[in-house]
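Q: Start with the shorter request: fold the first protein.
A: Done. Sequence, then structure:
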Amino acid sequence: MKLGLSTYTLTWSVGVPGYDPPLRPLTAEALVGLTRESGLGLLQIADNLPLHAMTDEALLRLKQTADAHRVELEVGTRGTDPELLLRYLGIAGLLGSSLVRTLATTPDLAAAEAQIRQVLPDFEAAGVTLAIENHGLHTTGQLVQLFQNLRSARVGCCLDTVNSFGALEAPDHVIRALSPYLVNLHVKDFEIKRADHMMGFSILGTAAGAGRLDIPGLKAIAGASGKPGVHAILELWTPYAGSVEETIAVERRWMEESLAYLRRVHFTEEEDSHYATGNVEREGL
C-alpha cells in the first residue's frame, strides 16, 4: 500500500482559518518538493489548498513540478455539487490524478446521491474514481447504503480512521464496515484523554503509532479488501502549541515520527507506476 502526504499532514504549515498565517505558507509546489525530500512519491492536495482557485496554466506548472520530482498527485475537494465535481474531474485530468476525494456536506444523503449520479457517467468514462470520505456527518450504515445504491466501480470510500467519532462510531467498527468500499485511506492516529476535572473527554491527534489506533490491524484489514491501487495518506490532527510557528515545528516532527513508524509496519513507498526511470509516462487518461 503506497504511502503519501497530504495538505492535511501539514495543515498548520498551509494555514488554518482563524489563526495567524504561517510566516512561509506551504504552496502546492513546495509540498511536492517536501514529499520527495521525505522519500515519498505521492501527495494528496485537498480542500484546504483549493486547486479550483488556480488557473489551468498554474495547474500545468504544478504537474510539471510533480513530474520532475516523480510525485503522483491526488486531488480533493468538499461537496457534491455537480459543477464542482466536474471541475475537479477536469483538474484530475490536468494533474494526472486517478482519484477525486470529496465528502458529502449535506445531512441529506439522498440529495447527495442524486448529485453524484449526474456526474458518475463522466467519472466512469474518464476512468477516475470518486472517493467519498466519512467525515462525521453520516453514520457508516448511511454511507454503506450510499455505496450500495450507486453500485459503481468508480465510487468508493475515502476511509478516515478518526472522523466518525463525530457520528458516535469507534474506529474498529468504522474500518470493518467501510473497508469493502475502500478506495483511499487516511491514516490518522489519536488519543482520548479525560478532562482534569474528570467530567468529559477530549479526542486529540497524535503522531502515527503514538496513539490508540491499531495501525497494523488497519493495514491488515485494508490489505484484505483486495483492491489494487489503494493508497494510504498520512493525516495529522496536530494541536495548537501556543503559536503557529511552534505548532508547525510540532507538526513537522510528528510527520517525521509518523513516517518512520509507518515504514516499520510496512507501509511502502514503491516507485509510482505512472513514472519510469528517466522518462515520465502517464498511464490511463
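Q: Next, the second protein, separately.
A: Sequence, then structure:
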Amino acid sequence: MASKHEQIIQHIISLEIGHKISVRQIAKDLNVSDGTAYRAIKEAENQGLVSTIERVGTIRIERKKKENFERLTFAEVINIVDGQVLGGREGLHKTLSKFVIGAMQLDAMMRYTEAGSLLIVGNRIKAHELALKEGAAVLITGGFDTEDYIKRLADERQLPIISTSYDTFTVAAMINRAIYDQLIKKEIVLVGDIFTPFERSFYLRAKDTIHDWYELNHRSTHTRFPVVDEKKRVIGMATSKDIIGKENQTTIEKVMSRHPKIVQTKTSLASVAHMMVWEGIEVMPVADESNHLQGVISRQDVLKALQQIQRQPQVGETIDDIVSRNLREADNQKDTYLTTVAPQMTNQLGTLSNGVFTSLITEASRRMLLQYKKGDLVAENLSVYFIKPVQIDSTLKIKPKLLEIGRMYAKIDVEVFDERKLVGKGLLMAQLINR
C-alpha cells in the first residue's frame, strides 16, 4: 500500500494543470496532517509538478521534459523578476516560447509578438491590449499598473499580465540568465536520468533466504542486491561476501550489510561515479527522501552515461569549460601550461578569482597525469598556500610537480607564475581513475 506521502503526490499529479493547491485543502481532502501535506507539496515542487508564487500561491504546472528546459513557465518568470500578477492567473502554468522587448513603434512591436511569447513593455496600454489579442502574455516594467479592461481581457484569454518594478533592460537580462542557467543544468546528468526503475530492478525482502539470493544471482548475474522491508524501504544490501559459507535457509536480514550507501534521483552522475570508484561499489540502491526503493544504478549504467556525455555537444560554457579551453601546453617546457586571464575568470575587483585559481591547478594537474598514467583524477583535497592579485589579460604559467604517486592516489605541488613572479601555490591530493 502506498504511503500517505505517495498518495498526496499521486493526488497532485491527477489535478488539472493550473489548479490551485493549498496545504489545508490537501490535508482535508486526504485526511492527513498539515505537516505531511506541506512536505509532500514541497517534494512535488522539487519534481516540477507545482510552482509556488509569492502573493499567488501554489499551482499545478506541466512537468517539463529535460530537453525543453530552456523554456520557462510564466509562473517561473514571476519568481525571477519578483513580479505581481495583475490578471490571467489561469495561464501561469503555460510556457513562453520567446520574449519580445517593446522598445519600438507599435506596428513594429506587433510584427515580432506572436502566440506563446512574452512582451516586455512599459506603460503602453495599447501594446498590452494588442499583445493579449495576439495570444502573448505581457510583462509591464517600471512598476506600472494597467487598465481594468486589459485585466479582464487577460482573464478571458487565460494569459498572464505581470507587473515588476525593474526596468526593461534588467528584466531581459534576468530572464536571459535564467534560461542560460537552465541550459547548463540540462547538461548535468542525474541519477534519475539513467537508473533502472523499481519495476525492472532486482531486490530482496528481509524475510527472503540465501537460497533466494542464489536464484536472483542466477537470473541477473549481479552479486549485490538491495534489501527492503514490508513497506519497500531500503534496510540493507546483500552481497556475495555476506552470504558465503551460510546455510541456504538463513534469512537475508540476518546476514545483510546494514546502513548501505543510498543515492537519490537528483544526485549528479559525477557524484555517484566518484562514490562507486572510491568505495568499489558495483550496484547502489536509488531511494526517495523516505528511503523507499525507487530502483538501482549500476557501474555499467554510469560508464555508459559518461561515454555518452563525451559525444554530446555542450550548450552552455561553465567556468571549468573556459579554464579547460584556454589552457595550453608551453613550447619546449615539459609539464608547464599557459593561460590568459579572460574577463569571465575574474572577481568583482577585476583580478583572478579564487575559484578559477583552484580550477587551473586541478586542470593542469589532470593533464600532467594523463601523460604519466594515461588516467584521470578526482580532486580529494586542495590546499592553497597563497594567491596574489592577477589582472585581466595576464598570461599565467602553471607548473604542476608530481611529489608522490601510487596505484590509487597522487600528491601534486603546483606553482603559478605571472611572467617570472610567483603569484600562487597549492597542493593537490587526488584519487586516480584508470582509463
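Q: Describe the second briefly.
A: The longest helix spans residues 354-373. The domain at 4-60 is CATH 1.10.10.10 (Arc Repressor Mutant, subunit A).
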